[in-house]
Amino acid sequence: MSENTNNVPVLELKNLVVHYETQDGVAEAVNGISLKVNASETLGLVGETGAGKTTIALTAMGLLPDVGHVIEGEILLDGKPITITSRKKRDKKHYNKMMRAFRGGVMGMIFQDPMSALNPVMYVGDQIAEVVRLHNSVTKTEAKQRAIEMMETVGIPGARYNEYPHQFSGGMKQRIVIAMALACNPRVLLADEPTTALDVTIQAQVLDLMRDLQKKFKTATLMITHDLGVVAETCDSVAVIYAGEVVEYGTAEHIFNNTKHPYTMALFNALPSLDKDVDRLHSIQGLVTDPMDLPEHCSFCERCTERCDACSIIDPVTTEVEPGHLVKCIKYMSQESIDAMLASKAEGKEAK
Ligand SMILES: Nc1ncnc2c1ncn2[C@@H]1O[C@H](COP(=O)(O)OP(=O)(O)OP(=O)(O)O)[C@@H](O)[C@H]1O
Ligand SMILES: [Mg+2]
């Protein structure tokens, strides 16, 4: 893969739509997401459980399960599309072959559950060396050397090469998974809740480590988390995801200091604060919207404390509230465009 020289984002998602087609129905997990990540930058994907965060990463890695399909849109790596919407077996076979070359080499992923990402009956060092050998024409000895180097980079003595995953603590296993994901200096790192399973001190160490490695390798990172503290520490820009859509997007500064969407505000209100003296923490009322039963109007409306009548009729369009700060909420649309959407809705109903 050629180096990125003309300001093309390393990773770009364009109007991505992903569905899971199951016996119980179709789960509309990702519904038209567009995002960009540049070299040396970290984009945070934040949202409650079931928002579609992991689905986005799995789609980018070409690791969707058989029931998962890209319905529309594309993912571009250095400006070149790497997704297919075809369901033909022949196309899928060709696609899987192409993605195998990217995975681990150009793109690395830290999986949501690192404990199950490691092979329990293989030495950890060999697991890292295997990735190196798969993507580089190196000898066994060179791959082993690189694996030891990576173990030491993540703070694990190379002397522990010939040990099994169960001989390491949770935090150490997480570091090994990070070493595996970064062993081939990937251009893109998809980190799916990389610190959720760790206690806070180890979490801080792992985040520091990821930041150092990012500086060293200029990696474009997609940081998936529901922890706003992790976002504050690591992300340059943030996309807040609800029901498979970006409801607010901006720089970390926009999201933290000029929060606009009622959902983002609710996420912040749910955080404990040392300055506020409250008996109980705020929670967001109601349940996460069911992706098998998405409404035609705003998907957050039933849980929103700021909803108006129009919210349960139309699906808001995204508005740029300040340069680079996008919000998908009726509150920021002009009255003119709300009226136009309401009128076209009413016309549609009459026509039926
Ligand atoms: N293999 C699958 N089959 C059917 N539905 C699925 C499958 N995997 C995910 N889904 C559904 O797609 C939606 C998005 O799931 P996803 O795992 O992407 O969410 P997430 O944002 O990563 O959540 P979490 O924070 O819990 O990890 C969910 O409603 C989930 O139930
Ligand atoms: Mg997930």
Uncertain segments of ≥5 residues (pLDDT<50)? none
Query: What is the count of DSSP helices, taking H or I runs of 4+ residues?
Result: 11
CATH domain topology of the largest domain: Rossmann fold
Backbone shape: globular
**Largest sheet: spatial strand order:** 6-7-8-3-9-10-12-11
Using only C-alpha atoms, the radius of gyration works out to 22 Å
Please describe the biggest sheet, giving its number of strands, its sense, and whether it closes into a barrel: 8 strands, mixed
Strand content: 15-25%
Give the fraction of residues assigned to helices: 25-40%
User: How many strands appear in the DSSP assignment?
Assistant: 12
Estimate nothing, just give the exact number of structural domains. Answer: 2
Helices and strands, in N-to-C order? EEEHEEHEHHHHEHEHEEHHEEH
By CATH's scheme, which homologous superfamily of the largest domain applies? P-loop containing nucleotide triphosphate hydrolases
